[in-house]
Design brief:
about 15% helix, mainly beta, about 325 residues, two-stranded antiparallel sheet, single chain
Amino acid sequence: MSRTVRMWCSVVLVLGMAGSAQAGRWWHHGLPSCRVPDFCEPAPCLVPQWVPEKRIVREVVCKPVEREKTVQVCRRVVETKTVTRQCTTWQPVTEMRTVQYTVRVPEWKEVEQKVPVRVPKVITCQGVRRVCRRVPVTTTRTVCYDAGRWVCTVDHCGRPRKVWCPNIVTKEVPCTTYRLEWEEVPYTYQRTVYETKWETRKVRVCTFRCEVRTKEVPCVRYEPKVVEKQVQVPVFKTVVEERKVKCVEWVPEVVEREVEVMVCRLVPVEPSCDKPAPTQKDQKSHAQQKPAPTQPAPQKPSQGEAVGKKSKDA
């Protein structure tokens, strides 16, 4: 809703509220407000009201569209190139050199030396050792034995038979046992003892003599030499290619849709009056009052102009 329409609606609403409060002003057939006479006559009144109304509005909507486009892509390509380069190499050179070295020469001599000699000798020694012997010991012990005899008797059938009659006798019997006894007994044994004696003998002794000698040895020496070589070198090149890719673009599109808006309208309403009937004094006082100056009624904007202003403001 445009600013002009909203302004007019607010003016009408304020005027209607003021008229209802003073009970003396209202809109009558599009004319400006007037003073209500003392007597009430039914006349149509226009009251502003908010009324829902459906309108078609336009808005811009972006929709995704999948398209193909050609783009340029750079790609690196490796190529092998043969290049001649100079490089330094070390060439071996063999030469003979005279080298001195020291040698230890052995010399053997016979020298008289005193040498210790161990001579064995057998000697007799006496010692004491412990010997275990068994010693008999006589003791007595009590034994029991049966000294019974056979007796001839007759059984209940009249047949003779022998029956053993036991006679247990206890007596002491001598018994011999052996007991271990340790005793120290002297004994003689022989032992070999070694005696050290010094003897003079001739011994071969080796001594070393240092001797300086010379010899020819081959020696390898390296000399630098500049040579040319064919070398394979990788070269990188950039190649531009065209490639088709898929992309999504947002395309604007105007779409019309129906919306519901609240519009201020002037609705005719039948007025109601609850005042008492006027008296003669009231009519005279009303006739003596001056008529109120009339004001031009505000022009109501047409529906097309309101919609055009609303679309401009939006």
